[in-house]
């Protein structure tokens, strides 16, 4: 059988890196935070992670089977999506909710649009948003790190939002509320706080991000712009209260979202200038929701909204072509 060889114009770039290699590196980067989630939330954390990962991989395999397409589970992108979804939900979320969120992330957000590389929203964050809209009580019932028993608690962001509701609507009032709850910056840095499975241990998320930058999987531009701008904005809007800005930086999913989901190849701009604009827009939205919205966390919605603007950013923000001459 004759085969037609089609060669595009030069230059040709060869690379040994494929999707599975990239996803393996992301999984390695997520491993420290995964171990921390298992340490703090034990069986509840393990069940949540397994339910999300199995739900994601299983739904992608079943979709390919039903549509008679070649199975794509070997590229490990479904595993990464499932793990990131688990990182974004409370430990102990009912198994069926975890599976439902994983199915929505994979089938509705990813596969229906053509599979990996074709989705316009981050699948894991879209799955989280779907679960939060569908099951708000379950998705905001946080479990404190506990070895022997289930103890519900509030997250640091919830305490800061509660301070505003009680008439302590200043940065100093929010910090005072956290001090009253015996929540310190150190606790937030090492993960000894209530929250989702993967967002609590800041230091391990940072280590994972450094690993991805070192391996060349992601650029530092988007995480630094996003996280740094949120810090600066909360510092300015919080009356130059540095402790309040630090609490806002290490609380919630800011580090998790900024390092592992804002940087998703498919849903982020192609140029450096576009990436800065994209991350800055997301940072402003996250800060506004956190400080002035009715919901204490704004990371997921800020990134999803910024995802929708990526085609527009890529259309108008592009690098100058080499040899181009202005008319």
From TrEMBL:
<keyword id="KW-0249">Electron transport</keyword>
<feature type="transmembrane region" description="Helical">
    <location>
        <begin position="244"/>
        <end position="263"/>
    </location>
</feature>
<feature type="transmembrane region" description="Helical">
    <location>
        <begin position="71"/>
        <end position="87"/>
    </location>
</feature>
<keyword id="KW-0472">Membrane</keyword>
<keyword id="KW-1003">Cell membrane</keyword>
<feature type="transmembrane region" description="Helical">
    <location>
        <begin position="125"/>
        <end position="144"/>
    </location>
</feature>
<dbReference type="InterPro" id="IPR004338">
    <property type="entry name" value="NqrB/RnfD"/>
</dbReference>
<keyword id="KW-0285">Flavoprotein</keyword>
<keyword id="KW-0288">FMN</keyword>
<protein>
    <recommendedName>
        <fullName>Ion-translocating oxidoreductase complex subunit D</fullName>
        <ecNumber>7.-.-.-</ecNumber>
    </recommendedName>
</protein>
<keyword id="KW-0813">Transport</keyword>
<keyword id="KW-0597">Phosphoprotein</keyword>
<dbReference type="GO" id="GO:0005886">
    <property type="term" value="C:plasma membrane"/>
</dbReference>
<keyword id="KW-1278">Translocase</keyword>
<feature type="modified residue" description="FMN phosphoryl threonine">
    <location>
        <position position="155"/>
    </location>
</feature>
<dbReference type="InterPro" id="IPR011303">
    <property type="entry name" value="RnfD_bac"/>
</dbReference>
<feature type="transmembrane region" description="Helical">
    <location>
        <begin position="275"/>
        <end position="293"/>
    </location>
</feature>
<feature type="transmembrane region" description="Helical">
    <location>
        <begin position="220"/>
        <end position="238"/>
    </location>
</feature>
<feature type="transmembrane region" description="Helical">
    <location>
        <begin position="21"/>
        <end position="40"/>
    </location>
</feature>
<comment type="similarity">
    <text>Belongs to the NqrB/RnfD family.</text>
</comment>
<dbReference type="GO" id="GO:0055085">
    <property type="term" value="P:transmembrane transport"/>
</dbReference>
<comment type="function">
    <text>Part of a membrane-bound complex that couples electron transfer with translocation of ions across the membrane.</text>
</comment>
<dbReference type="Pfam" id="PF03116">
    <property type="entry name" value="NQR2_RnfD_RnfE"/>
</dbReference>
<dbReference type="GO" id="GO:0022900">
    <property type="term" value="P:electron transport chain"/>
</dbReference>
<feature type="transmembrane region" description="Helical">
    <location>
        <begin position="46"/>
        <end position="64"/>
    </location>
</feature>
<keyword id="KW-0812">Transmembrane</keyword>
<keyword id="KW-1133">Transmembrane helix</keyword>
<feature type="transmembrane region" description="Helical">
    <location>
        <begin position="189"/>
        <end position="213"/>
    </location>
</feature>
<comment type="subunit">
    <text>The complex is composed of six subunits: RnfA, RnfB, RnfC, RnfD, RnfE and RnfG.</text>
</comment>
<feature type="transmembrane region" description="Helical">
    <location>
        <begin position="93"/>
        <end position="113"/>
    </location>
</feature>
